[in-house]
Design a protein that fits this description.
Blueprint lengths: L1 H7 L4 H6 L6 H12 L2 H21 L6 H17 L4 H8 L3 H33 L4 H49 L3 H11 L21 H21 L1 H4 L8 H28 L13 H8 L3 H32 L10 H19 L6 H25 L5 H23 L11 H19 L4 H10 L9 H37 L13 H5 L2 H21 L12
Length: 567
């Protein structure tokens, strides 16, 4: 119904590709969150915390989601100024190079095509578990359910359905979380009991399960790994095509900034609930196999039937919303970005190419084994290494050349994919500090610097970049600025309040369960969990202050901001 309504409003390519560039804050928040939440978190990441890593996923600060904020400040607002059709199209315009656009488009097709495959498989696993359908039948049903409305309604339909689905799985998760906590005696009792019983070694400790039988031999190994992954995903949230492209649809730059910060909050709170649920389900059953089905198991066995059905419908909605986003982006790149010369496109031609793309993905789902969590991590970090350096330097460097950008994308992509593939085959065993994402990012930066040093930036590239740095007059509005500044102020408040909440609701019951509270019942400040709990303050208070300063200086009508600065 929504797809039909939205599709009737698609009159031209701008409507199909970027929703007419009229989306308000609510719709951008909805599509940002829904496109990142899918079976990968409800199945993969919940299963990961169930297996022994609830503690770090609750205690460590949201390093990854901070990417929403600095991504909007340093990339997203400038992307919107370009009025490009896709993010790859923006890079092509920025460097006045069809070859750069093709390289970026190819990574979208390969990377998000893989992500679409994973999400489709996750939705099929859920459907097969809930119905009498076989896995093969469920794959086809899941594929049809998101392909038909995406094909007809394009981005306009995607962002509306994303927002509705976010509402569904958001409400369902909150209610489910509250019911489970009440059944376990409340949050503090549940954490204390889980710590005391230890169904998985150190599941509630800041580093989770480590040592023999784990992926990580020591707490330091795990910390290095999780910091690398979180920083890479921060870059993904900042510049990846399935997140940054949402900014192209925003009504104005203030919508970009507000929605990015509010999406940051929404993702943080949703993650805390889902990660907490994944770990706490051990108190009901610590032998669920495969672990990726822990939320499904709890929804079917531990809550009233109607609530379980609501949550499972929400998880399926999350999967379908992500899939619709990925299909639209891959299809748009096939139609707009990868040919040697621009196509003469119409809405119907684009729809045909989106359908062809979807059919290729459907065929691939039948022979690629499903592995939701690890494939998701791999694909996400590919964009951090291949897009991150080029994306930020496209705005903030006047020395990067078109050739440098092209080879930066290529080397970043293969510098990540090749080591990851070789390691997966068991031919090498990389130390944790040489994660393929790091190798790819280093390769990308090296290629950019070396190649750019040998070339020159054209006058047209330089002029285009300078135009991007000019704040639109319509966004220098005092009323808009005041409304936008509420968002970074909330970041500061969150950073100040969250450490206290973590200490009270998690660290104290953790130490009580572990028997490490001091004799007088006060906190033992000698344990790392206490200090890790201050992470949100260390990260988000400065981020909020810096964001407020940048927004004020950039958009205040009374302030003249220089139009350019070399990097």
């Amino acid at each position: 119904m929504v797809g039909s309504y939205s599709g009737r409003g698609v009159k031209q390519l701008d409507d199909y590709f970027v929703a007419g560039r009229r989306a308000p804050t609510m719709l951008i928040v909805g599509t940002l969150v829904a496109s990142v939440f899918s079976t990968s978190i409800f199945l993969g990441e919940a299963g990961f915390t169930y297996d022994g890593w609830m503690g770090p996923y609750i205690l460590l600060p949201g390093i990854a989601v901070a990417g929403y904020v600095y991504g909007a400040l340093l990339f997203g607002t400038f992307l919107r100024r370009s009025r490009a059709t896709t993010v790859a199209d923006f890079l092509g315009q920025r460097f006045q190079s069809r070859r750069v656009q093709q390289a970026a488009g190819a990574t979208i097709i390969l990377g998000l095509g893989g992500y679409l495959l994973v999400v489709t498989q996750g939705a099929a696993i859920l459907l097969a578990d809930l119905t009498a359908l076989t896995y093969t039948q469920a794959l086809v049903a899941a594929w049809l359910s998101y392909t038909l409305f995406t094909l007809y309604a394009g981005s306009r339909g995607v962002i509306i359905t994303d927002t509705l689905m976010f509402g569904l799985f958001g409400v369902a998760t909150v209610i489910f979380f509250i019911v489970i906590l009440q059944d376990l005696g409340g949050a503090t009792t549940a954490v204390e009991t889980l710590t005391r019983e230890q169904p998985k070694p150190d599941i509630t400790a800041w580093h989770g399960t480590i040592g023999e039988g784990s992926e990580w031999a020591t707490a330091l190994d795990f910390l290095i790994w999780v910091l690398i992954i979180d920083m890479c995903w921060g870059v993904v949230y900042a510049v990846s095509p399935w997140q940054a492209s949402r900014h192209l649809m925003a009504r104005n730059e203030h919508v970009v900034l507000r929605s990015a910060i509010y999406a940051c909050f929404a993702v943080i709170f949703m993650q805390l609930m889902i990660y907490g649920l994944g770990g706490l389900i051990n108190l009901y059953n610590s032998d669920i196999t495969p672990s990726e089905t822990v939320i499904i198991w709890a929804a079917k066995t531990q809550v009233p039937q109607i609530l379980g059905a609501l949550l499972l419908a929400g998880i399926l909605a999350a999967a379908l919303s992500s899939a619709s986003t990925f299909l639209s982006l891959v299809g748009f790149s096939v139609s707009n970005d990868i040919t040697s010369t621009p196509r003469e496109l119409t809405v119907n031609k684009t729809r045909a190419l989106v359908l062809l793309t979807g059919l290729v993905v459907l065929v691939a789902t039948f022979w690629v084994p499903p592995n939701v969590f690890w494939i998701m991590l791999f694909i996400g970090t590919v964009f951090a290494s291949s897009w991150g350096p080029v994306g930020f330097m496209s705005i903030w460097s006047d020395r990067i050349t078109a050739d440098g950008a092209f080879w930066g994308i290529v080397f970043g992509f293969f510098g990540n994919v090749i080591p990851a593939a070789v390691q997966t085959l068991g031919l090498i065993d990389l130390p944790v500090y040489l994660d393929p994402a790091i190798l790819g990012a280093v390769a990308s930066i090296a290629a950019i610097l070396i190649v750019s040093r040998r070339g020159t930036v054209s006058d047209s590239e330089r002029r285009y970049r300078l135009q991007l740095l000019e704040t639109p007059a319509e966004d220098r509005d005092a009323r808009k600025v005041r409304t936008t500044l509420i968002a970074p102020v909330l970041l500061v408040i969150y950073g100040l309040v969250m450490p206290g909440l973590l200490l009270y609701w998690y660290v104290v019951p953790y130490q009580r369960g572990a028997g490490t509270l001091l004799p007088d019942g006060s906190l033992n400040w000698g344990q790392a969990e206490v200090w890790v709990a201050f992470g949100p303050g260390i990260l988000f208070v400065p981020l909020g202050v810096i964001s407020a300063i940048v927004i004020w200086r950039r958009y205040s009508p009374a302030v003249e901001v220089p139009t350019a600065a070399g990097a």
